[in-house]
Amino acid sequence: MAETNSRAIEGDDSFTRSAGKQLALYALYAVISLSVLVYILSVAAAQFGSNSTGQAIDVEDNAVTITLRAEPPQLDQGRSTDASSFVVLAHAFEGLIAYDEEARLTPGVAERWEIREDGATFWLREDAKWSDGVPVTAYDFEFAWRRVVDPATASQYAFIFYSIKNAEAVNTGVLPKEMLGVRAVSDRQLEVEFEQPTPYFDKLVAFITFLPVREDFYNSTNGRYGADADEMIYNGPYMITDWVHSASMVWKKNPYYWSDKRGFLDEIRVAYITSDTNAKLNLFKDGQIVETELLSPMLPGAMAERWQIDRIMDGTVFFFEFNHRPGRVTDNLNFRKALMYAHESSELVYKALKEASYLPAVSLFPAWIQGVNGPFREEYPPPEHHMDLEKARHHLELAKQELGVDEFPPIVMLSGDTPVSLVASAYYQELFRKRLGLEIRIDAQIFKQRLAKMTSGDFDIVLAGWGPDYDDALTFGDFFASWNLNNRGRYNSPEMDSYIRTAQSSLDPKERMDAFGNIQQLVYDDVAMLPMYERGWSFVVDPRLKGFRRRSVGPEVDYNYAYIDVSSD
Amino acid sequence: MMWFIGKRLVQGLITVWFIATATFFAMHNVPGDPLLNDRATTAIIRANLEAKYGLDKPVTTQYFIYLNNIAHGDFGISFAQENREVNDIIREHFPVSAILGILAVVIAAVGGILWGSLTALYRNRLPDYIIMFLVILGISVPSFVIAALSQLGIVTINSLLGRTFLPVAGWGTISHMLVPALVLGLTTMAYLTRLMRSSMLEIVNSDFVRTAKSKGVPPARIFARHQLRNAVLPVITVLGPSIAAITTGGFVVEIVFAIPGLGRFFVEAVQQLDYTVIMGTTVFYGAFLVFMVILVDVIYGFIDPRVRMN
Q1: Size of interface A-B (CB pairs under 8 A)
Q2: Contact assignment for A448 to B33 by CB distance below 8 Å
């Protein structure tokens, strides 16, 4: 019955036609009311909007449009820890010492300085000013540094001040913050006392946590310092005039900035805050932003566009961190040696990861670290390593005998949940199974959980990375110190500790570098870790923008020296 | 009617309390430590951070402090963005998600009803085949693929035209929101089209339509009054949950189109174990969902008198 009916209706063309007309009328109503709705919503949306102008380079206004990888959690230089905040802070503030175009140290607020065995003196320039015209004084540094080590601030980077006298004692609440070995002698002279000789102090001072903070302004923000653009005062080449959270920022040239060698642009517009590299590539193609990074799959397309592709190591070294706690299989040297001889980092990088901008890691120290006169790794070549399965199996046998086992228990390999770490852990799982007959259990975790497991020692091997804080070999060299809280595998060797002490405090550059050479050798001999890869980025920049830098140490992107040049078009 | 609304509101309040409690204890049992970061910290700094966020107290005490705070509308300070209150985050970013969500839902509902009726009207003819093919695509292709593809489409159109016809990403004007809203609403639109189609077909065969026809009621009137009005009821029922799903599910679209909405915070807070933001966004969205369901029930009451009677 229903069958006939429906056929009858279908067959009724005149019904369909009139009903279709009615539907079309409704559709028209719908489109009209939708347009009204869209208009109303767009008026409401405008107040949360971004400031994209549709131009990567605005020659008329001398401005560029850029992206930020993530929303800065806050811009309090004493407490910031993430790469995005560092990028913003490196443009809006200037420390005693800064980086030049070629990543060498150059005078910042300090016009000259002296580093002695027991301390350092900084003489500040007269014309350094805050963005309201008030001069930058030594007191601004004294206040800022005391605030960082004050345990009430809970700064995660306080440890980087520990070479200053009493810093650790203040930070652990033993001494009041006024006892920190930093004193403003006058407006223009800052005296620093060391806990121990610190020959690399100039490099430390270029780090973000050492930036100045003005006390009267800080107190006026009632604990909201760094939360919004108007809760900060700046002394860098640029100042933040507008910050819409998670959407956009505007950095304008700071009219009171002292130097004419930095800050050539009138305006830098952060129009997009996104970590999506595909979206960024689309924005770049569309001429909306001046720079973006390229992942391996994007390279053929970029070459087809005839773009100038550049490459930079981002500074980070990734490696296997072993759990050296007693009772772990990985505490056994022969076992670690077996793994070492079964692997070759170039294989991982070229066959498994296939990221064109990565380098196989061969040492704790990345390729760009400087030695006495030239690159460290040219002066102190890393121990030569070749895969040798024969040796690997031999060491594995020795390990079995020493541990008194016939079969090894499954080895827990803790890893992050990023695509690269998942590929790497799967690669090693297969490799050690095939070459050594070992069973590896991959434990992939989100960042915070991986850290929690690393800290509590709940792993045999963890795929970890370490990035530099300052431009000195020590930023990597002290990683395996027994007192270093970041040494989460608890590697502990008196020999290592003594090399690190020399590297920390020797005033003779040669003796220091020798110590780093010894550290490099000991890491290899003891298999404290297994190097995997050094991370790098391919990137492309609008050809009209000159002087732009990506850096291995310091802010990952640097527009302080960038300027627009349309002549080469 | 008032009694009906009042009863639903009390039920809603209990639901929100239950969501808050479940989230609170689930969150505290998720492995991982919110205060850990790349650089290890000393014991005293950790103790200070714990005191700042009240993590030094027993979990049950924390729970009652927490309940008391949300009763006063205070969600606390974010762990990741140390100087921002969760209330500020919600206030600044929810409107963006809401605007995007409203537009997406309206597009989805209007599109779903229109396409659904069209396919039912032209059943087993060309328009039906084309639209139903697109519907299958819309349901099965995940939104991150559609988002990335449509963005690529914009870039291609812009470069063909030689000017910026539609912005690739960002937020603030009409042109910024059209494509993201469409992408966001697409899956729901596809579902609604299918729902509307089957609902229409059911009604086409019903007795009252046949009666109306035999009485000689004009076709346009039968279609509008008898068929459409009845067929739209099931669509409205699922609209409430879809509004919440769309407004909370904007994460992918917000990332791809660099839109400063709350969806990002909702997802990233979980990854970063940002306790206060997890609690704030979950309870807020939970309350929002409950409110939407109540709202839809009330609207339903207006459209269909039978609901009011019961």
Answers
A1: 244
A2: yes
